[in-house]
TrEMBL record:
SUPFAM superfamilies: Winged helix' DNA-binding domain. Coiled coil: none annotated. InterPro entries: HTH_11 (IPR013196), WH-like_DNA-bd_sf (IPR036388), WH_DNA-bd_sf (IPR036390). It comes from Natrialba aegyptia DSM 13077. Gene3D superfamilies: Winged helix-like DNA-binding domain superfamily/Winged helix DNA-binding domain (1.10.10.10). This is Helix-turn-helix type 11 domain-containing protein. It holds the Pfam family HTH_11. Residues 4-52 form the Helix-turn-helix type domain.
């Protein structure tokens, strides 16, 4: 995933899946493999024009809205964390109150504990 992000950081325009794979020196299958995860973390956006990072720009005219387009109007942080964990965890870990990630939604829910996790924390900070 790091090479995909680095390539998008250095790209001046959106990249097609093929262009991104070529520049990253990976297969298009690898790009597809990480697409859902990168979109779930709101790191990239993909549309008919290609792949791009979701980083904000310095000027208001270039800046996208702060809220992710993936979130529905009435969706809460817990809803987003629930969807995220459902995507990245196998079913047996998702329902495990002793799992460091799966337990984030158990009472009392504390999605902020995901920030301390060594794997997902760096992506969420």
């Amino acid at each position: 995933m790091g090479r995909i992000i680095h390539t998008l950081l250095t790209a001046e325009n959106r990249l097609s899946q093929r262009e991104l794979a070529d520049r990253t020196d990976v297969s298009t299958r690898t790009i597809r493999k990480y697409r859902d995860r990168l979109e779930a973390l709101d790191i990239i956006r993909v549309d008919e024009s290609g792949y791009r990072l979701t980083l904000s720009f310095q000027t208001a005219s270039e800046r996208d809205p702060v809220l992710s387009s993936l979130l529905e109007e009435r969706q809460t942080l817990l809803d987003a964390v629930d969807a995220f964990l459902e995507t990245i965890l196998p079913p047996d870990r998702y329902g495990d109150p002793n799992d460091p990630l799966g337990s984030a939604l158990f009472w009392p829910p504390d999605p902020s504990r995901l920030l301390d996790h060594p794997t997902v924390g760096p992506w969420l900070r």
